Amino acid sequence: MEGQLAHIGAGIAALGTGIAAIGVGNVASSFLGGALRNPSAAASQTATLFIGIAFAEALGIFSFLVALLLMFAV
Amino acid sequence: MATEAQSEGLGLVFKPMEQFLVTPLGGDGPVMWFTFTNAALWTSLAVLAVFLLLVTTTTKRAVVPSRMQSVAELAYGFIYKMVEDICGKEGIKYFPYIMTLFMFIVMANFLGLIPTAFTPTSHFAVTVPLALSVFLGVTILGFVKNGPAFLGMFWVTSAPLALRPALALIELISYFVRPVSHSVRLAGSMMAGHAVIKVFAGFAALAVVSPFAVLGITAMYGLEVLVCFIQAYVFTILTCVYLKDALHPHH
């Protein structure tokens, strides 16, 4: 029973990665919106884009980690 | 493993996580520290590929570069510009380390895309030491370069005084969480992408859906080629950002 509950918890934790996907999409869409207004400045900001995506993604990774721990470590 | 499910009715077998098992080459047996496993094989192949790309193509340098030489020069210029843009002129000193990290990760990722290959970077045992070495190196470098002033990074002087202790706590936590997200991001995306391809491959055993399964594998494979490069790029760019924080702690 406890193992099954851990699997349910892992599924709930996996929802967090989907929510982080909203954040990543938000970063990318804001970048595209800004880049289309001022295309000449876009190329110099791609590094900033990836850093922003990485930070938004990091929080999704933590929920992925929780899911992994529930699946294999608990 | 819990993920290896078998649906009896349709005769489908899903073993998406089997590809990540570390096994000795040529048969079963106990894995000791000296056993030559598939992980060791593909890690050495990645190092060999970096050597072939960067050393052998540039020994006979030509003014008009050959195809492989242009690829090597492109990779060099790409990372050099990234380090220069993010860390400034002072960061160029640490360019060899960052170049090494990038080439190893990108080669390990790409070699892992070969069917039946093993991906070393899909294991925490590989990515955690990479991320920890960056974390420890950057922290030590920050204290060597700035002395105790490096701790000023956690004391945000641009914020109101009342907020500063709370901000310092948050900054401190986010600093120590860095190696976790740094390593889990790389291993997690490698593992997830390869497992998805295997799940699609499991569906190919069913004749009705097999055309869609093959299409799905092709599409996911194309995406994986992109992800393999992007994850190596993100790992490298985050290393540069952490290095910049150590060199110039006052933002």
Automatic annotation (TrEMBL), chain A:
The record marks 57 as: Reversibly protonated during proton transport. Residues 8-70 form the V-ATPase proteolipid subunit C-like domain. It is found in: Cell membrane; Membrane. It is a multi-pass membrane protein. Pfam families: ATP-synt_C. Keywords: ATP synthesis, Cell membrane, CF(0), Hydrogen ion transport, Ion transport, Lipid-binding, Membrane, Transmembrane, Transmembrane helix, Transport. The chain crosses the membrane at residues 12-36, 48-73. Belongs to the ATPase C chain family. F(1)F(0) ATP synthase produces ATP from ADP in the presence of a proton or sodium gradient. F-type ATPases consist of two structural domains, F(1) containing the extramembraneous catalytic core and F(0) containing the membrane proton channel, linked together by a central stalk and a peripheral stalk. During catalysis, ATP synthesis in the catalytic domain of F(1) is coupled via a rotary mechanism of the central stalk subunits to proton translocation. This is ATP synthase subunit c. The gene is atpE.
